[in-house]
């Protein structure tokens, strides 16, 4: 029995074999071998999006294929299947460029792009999938490069839905954006003790502020009732914390002017919004970078009801983390090249996560808590209902391992 390290620790792979691949040829050989032996194949990059364990099949570990090459003239990066967004950011930054990455540098390029990619500046940039130039794939019979010109239908599926069964992405060519004028950081308000209902005023202030913003400002909010655990910083332990993450492409002066009403509406405990080096962009949402067990889901909505927002800050009980990302702007416009991204008709994406997996919070209880928060937003759900990137952990009703 063997397993591969994973950001998601609530699900454990139990493959009959693991192949650690270093190039496309290795992947082709692994797929041919799996076909010969009748083994199901699972691909593992970082495990952020792990939902179903590999049970008795062949696990292909792409982590070593993390090479990133940047063409600063074409403004593209070619990222191997094992690359994370942190790898691409680091390679692009010396050229004054940035990829359309999301909130956590440890997320893998391939999994994120397959879901469409809700980037830090999604309202200015559009979905990350809009910036993909080509996807390189391995199959048991060899390799293929898919682009808008070579196979428009499959290229659309690869950007929003993911590769067909039996295909493994070996590299992606993605467009890069300029980082001039990038501003970002967080506005933090401690709402009180985690075990008493919080004041929703700061959350309402954020929601009201987003209703009239130009496309160059993207923001999201998170509400985290931190447990009283010794490994957490003292100022967070046992506290309910609201954080607004902001990324603007409009430069410091314009961003400060646009932020002024939100800065004035709430007595913020911390404000780190300032010119942003993309290499420091993890500070925008300050998400945990250590592996843990989490499950969750999301709903795409055309607006935010006040009752739903109040439920987010007033609830007590088992820990639930709520994140709301503001969409619209360029994320709401049709792409130049057809894709299958969900969320173009949504104004916000509400995602709810819960830690699970010990005696205190069994899986079913964690799902109930998540669904209880999501229900508060369901009345405004769009036709597409949810975005696949924010479904985490074991399926409802399915044991975790
Ligand atoms: C802390 C955190 C922050 C996040 N922030 C954002 C965000 O800001 N925006 C956003 O859009 N999403 C975000 N996500 C969601 C994330 O994009 C998805 O979970 C994504 O699936 C992770 O991809 P991965 O490669 O890191 O993970 P993995 O779990 O390794 O892979 C995810 C899926 O893709 C498959 N896969 C991976 N590599 C390949 C390959 N080479 N070929 C074929 N299939 C492959 C895997 O089999 C698996 O099914 C976040 C997730 C977490 C946990």
Automatic annotation (TrEMBL):
Gene3D superfamilies for this protein: 3.30.465.10, 3.40.462.20
Swiss-Prot/TrEMBL keywords: FAD, Flavoprotein, Oxidoreductase
A Pfam short name: FAD_binding_4
Span of domain FAD-binding PCMH-type: 11-179
Record has Oxidoreductase as a keyword: yes
Superkingdom of this protein's organism: Bacteria
Essential cofactor(s): FAD
Protein family (similarity comment): Belongs to the oxygen-dependent FAD-linked oxidoreductase family.
Name under which the protein is recorded: FAD-binding protein
Protein's organism: Pseudonocardia alni subsp. carboxydivorans
């Amino acid at each position: 029995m063997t397993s591969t390290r994973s950001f998601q620790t609530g699900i454990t792979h139990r493959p009959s074999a693991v192949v650690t691949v270093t190039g496309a040829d290795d992947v082709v050989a692994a797929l041919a071998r799996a076909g010969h032996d009748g083994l199901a194949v699972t691909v593992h990059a970082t495990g952020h999006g792990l939902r179903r364990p590999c049970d008795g099949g062949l696990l292909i570990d792409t982590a070593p294929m993390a090479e990133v090459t940047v063409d600063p003239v074409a403004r593209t990066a070619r990222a191997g299947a094992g690359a994370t967004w942190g790898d691409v950011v680091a390679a692009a930054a010396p050229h004054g460029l940035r990829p359309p990455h999301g909130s956590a540098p440890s997320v893998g390029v391939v999994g994120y792009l397959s879901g469409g990619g809700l980037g830090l500046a999604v309202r200015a940039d559009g979905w990350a999938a809009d910036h993909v130039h080509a996807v390189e794939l391995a199959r048991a019979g060899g390799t293929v490069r898919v682009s808008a010109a070579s196979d428009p239908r499959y290229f659309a599926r690869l950007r929003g839905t993911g590769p067909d069964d039996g295909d493994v992405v070996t590299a992606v060519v993605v467009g890069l954006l300029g980082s001039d004028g990038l501003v970002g950081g967080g506005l933090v308000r401690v709402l009180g003790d985690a075990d008493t209902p919080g004041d929703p005023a700061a959350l309402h202030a954020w929601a009201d502020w987003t209703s009239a913003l130009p496309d160059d400002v993207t923001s999201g909010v998170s509400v985290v009732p931190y447990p009283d655990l010794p490994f957490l910083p003292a100022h967070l332990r046992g506290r309910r914390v609201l954080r607004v993450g902001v990324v603007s492409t409009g430069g410091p002066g314009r961003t400060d002017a646009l932020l002024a009403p939100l800065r004035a509406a709430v007595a913020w405990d911390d404000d780190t919004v300032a010119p942003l080096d993309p290499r420091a962009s993890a500070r925008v949402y300050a998400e945990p970078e250590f592996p843990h067990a989490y499950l969750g889901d999301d709903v795409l909505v055309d607006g935010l009801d006040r009752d739903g927002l109040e439920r987010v800050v007033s609830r007590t009980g088992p820990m639930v983390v709520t994140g709301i990302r503001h969409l619209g702007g360029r994320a709401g416009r049709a792409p130049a090249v057809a894709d299958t991204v969900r969320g173009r008709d949504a104004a916000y994406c509400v995602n709810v996560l819960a830690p699970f997996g010990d005696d205190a919070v069994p899986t079913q209880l964690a799902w109930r808590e998540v669904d209880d928060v999501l229900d508060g937003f369901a009345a405004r759900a769009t036709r597409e209902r949810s975005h696949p990137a924010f479904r985490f952990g074991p399926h409802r009703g399915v044991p975790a391992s």
